[in-house]
Design a protein that fits this description.
Order of helices and strands: HHHHHHEHHE
Helix content: 40-55%
Largest sheet: 2 strands, parallel
Strand content: under 5%
Number of helices: 8
Number of strands: 2
Radius of gyration: 16 Å
Shape: globular
Structural class: mainly alpha
Strand order of the largest sheet: 1-2
């Protein structure tokens, strides 16, 4: 479903970063632990976390204990705050990559779905330039699908029309 909520968008970007190199189900099983550890993805609170705070999270078996990925969440919070300052909201900035409306793909099979597009490449490049970590064209596209910027539901899916 299309989301324009900055907290939700920040969370999804961070979880996509955690997923890099792993299966999505691994991250989904740990989502509640990430919410607890990172203040329900409140970017202001996350940006204030110290190196010691992040280091302590390496002992939390509810998280993926990869120092770089955990540090990326703080870096992504700092970048989110800068984007909000410059653009008014994270949503305004991100939705600009799809002209502020969902891209509706008419897939007969999920196998037809892209894994990256020119828009996801541009988004990943722009986010990296803004300071985001662990984001590339493929993870940006998966993010775009998960927040409703791209509707890759099969046309026969019961959710297809609801996600437009």
């Amino acid at each position: 479903m299309p989301s324009h909520d900055d907290r939700h968008l920040f969370e999804k970007l961070c979880l996509e970063a955690q997923q890099a190199g792993l299966s999505w189900i691994t991250v989904l099983k740990k989502r509640a632990a990430y919410r607890r550890a990172f203040f329900n993805f409140d970017a202001k609170k996350v940006a204030k976390m110290t190196d010691a705070d992040i280091e302590a999270l390496l002992g939390n078996d509810g998280l993926i204990r990869h120092r770089g990925k955990l540090l990326a969440i703080r870096a992504n919070a700092e970048a989110t705050l800068a984007i909000q300052q410059a653009h008014g909201s994270l949503a305004e900035f991100l939705w600009g990559f799809v002209d502020h409306r969902p891209v509706i793909n008419r897939l007969k099979s999920y196998r037809e779905a892209d894994t990256a597009t020119a828009a996801s490449e541009a988004m990943a490049k722009a986010l990296k330039k803004k300071g985001f970590k662990f984001i590339g064209p493929t993870s940006a596209y998966a993010f775009m699908q998960s927040v409703g910027m791209v509707n890759d539901h099969e046309v026969t899916c019961f959710r297809y029309k609801a996600c437009q």
